[in-house]
Amino acid sequence: MTYTAPLADMRFALREVAGLSGVAALPGYEHATDDTIDAVLEEAAKLAGNGLAPLNREGDKVGAKLENGVVRTAPGFAAIYKEFVEGGWNSLPFDPEFGGQGMPWLLATTVQEMWQAANMGFGLVLLLNQGAIDAIHHHGSDAQKATYLPKMISGEWTGTMNLTEPQAGSDLGQLKSRAVKTGDHYLVTGQKIFITYGEHDMAENIVHLVLARTPDAPAGVRGISLFIVPKYLANEDGTPGKRNDLRCVSLEHKLGIHASPTCVMSFGDDGGAVGYLVGEEGRGLSYMFTMMNNARLSVGIQGLAIAERAYQQAAAFARTRVQSKDDGSPKPASVAIVHHADVRRMLMSMRSQIEAMRALGYYTAAGIDGALKQPDKEAGRRIQDRVDLLIPIVKAWFTDLGNEIASTGVQIHGGMGFIEETGAAQHLRDARILQIYEGTNGIQARDLVGRKVAKDGGETMLALVAEMRATVEEMKAAPGDDIEAIRAGLVAAADALEDATKWVAQSVKAELVNALAGSVPFLRLAGTALGGWMLARSALVAQHKLAARDGDPAFLEAKLVTARFYAEVILPPALAQLGPLKAAGRTVFVLSEEQF
To answer: What's the predicted TM-score (pTM) here?
Structure first.
């Protein structure tokens, strides 16, 4: 089963929900015209469907292999990566000063969904490079930018993030890698684990961003600095020169994403890998979090992407798999399982949540553009606050759903879904990592409650609730049973999210651990409620377009039905998280450690 980019829904989410026209009107984005955007989407869809998707299954079966210190990627990966570089796909959202195209992050996010849906094992190299570019662009010196950004933006060189170590996990305060100043550089020693595309054969150089401690650094996170440690040191003319003292010592054997080499990297086995300090000593973690924000949005988009891929495959299977009679018909003949009520329920659950994720993800990406380009600094700060609030929701809620929807895809296939040859199992295996990396989803929930809501007492979230209520008021003037049902669901969502936010804001001040005990249910409630808001806005646009006979009636009618299903079937159980989020703190700490 291949992949076809859902261009109609992508365009709708871009234009009608995320506000592409407003983004294109921002200073610096004047070239993001409708014609240009459509041309990029069309070409990206072809490359995703015809180039990347056919390599996905073989990449899973063959995987990446370590041979004599060199990682060989799966068949076809090096060739398709070369096509990416030659086509300029890596450079889409980056600064034109360094060879980027300067297109909106909103467009880059949409295209990224295609890459990740078509072939997530391949798409990871693009995601990590994007994060490394962000960090160097924001915090590197002029010389570092000039040396590394043009090659990384073109894709000729790729970037990595080297954060954790065997003893550290998510607690980066425990890092032990060292960096000793020697002249104009540092010598870096230590071992890093879980390094995505830490070694591969697709690019001529790999630029590692490495967290390490200087000898006199204090303990904990304040003692961590960030270093550029390239695989090959750059010559004066910018070409790769001497091999640096670093190597991949092993590849992890994983549940999924087999095509993506997850490396154990060793630095300084022969005296020290040459590294260059980024910014100031001791500020490495704050610099790394610059790229973590966009990286977490990207991981959320991966959750959306794998859900879309699983849905397309499940829907195709349901239309062709013939089993049992139609319960709604007197005819005894067997029918395709798409006629059966529970299969329909599963497909509608997949479809509605995917559309909610897509709209909220694109809305968040548009916020990144607004924060970057908004001429009014105070308005830009408010937009950034909203983006900061939404990022942990997008990362965690999307990836939770990606895993659940991929699992539902296996269920629709029945026993065939458990068999590797159908491909449904691969989506589930690939999806499982998304809830773990770039900060586990529990860490995202902790961030949402302990930092984002605590920072302003919930004001940014309550401003979103106010906008949800404004949409409710708009819907009163729109006719139809579907709109009325969606409006009722949105009222309930706004009420629940307001109640939950006020409780969390108060609890964070009174007793933090009680708020943290309910943080995951809170995030789930927030994501589902905001997703409902996005679908309500979509339904309102669809209703107006139907009345004006503007657009494809079948597509617009489906928007209304999908939004109503979400409001009546998906929202109620999610809003019931209000009780558990308030109650969890009363019991989670009662049992002793020995009782577990």
So the answer is: 0.97
Say whether pLDDT at 201 is over 90: yes
On whether residue 175 sits in a domain, the answer given is no
Task: Identify whether 510 is part of a domain.
Answer: yes
Tokens 């007492």 belong to 457
Residue 436 lies in a domain: no
Q: Is 204 a catalytic residue?
A: no
For residue 11, count other CB atoms closer than 10 A to its CB. 16
How many domains is the chain partitioned into structurally? 1
The answer to whether 443 touches 170, Cβ cutoff 8 Å, is yes
Higher local confidence (pLDDT), 382 or 173: 382
DSSP secondary structure, 541-572, as one string: HHHHHHHHT-S-HHHHHHHHHHHHHIIIIIHH
**β pairing state of 157-162 and 205-213:** parallel
Which residue is catalytic, options 281, 355, 438, 498?
438
Task: Identify residue 578 by its one-letter amino acid code.
Answer: L
Contact (CB, 8 A) for 287 and 226: yes
pLDDT single digits (tens) 112-153: 999 999 999 999 999 999 999 999 999 999 999 999 999 999
Q: Which of 478, 462, 463 is nearest to 538 (CA)?
A: 478
523 domain-assigned: yes
For the stretch 550-579, pLDDT in tens is 999 999 999 999 999 999 999 999 999 999
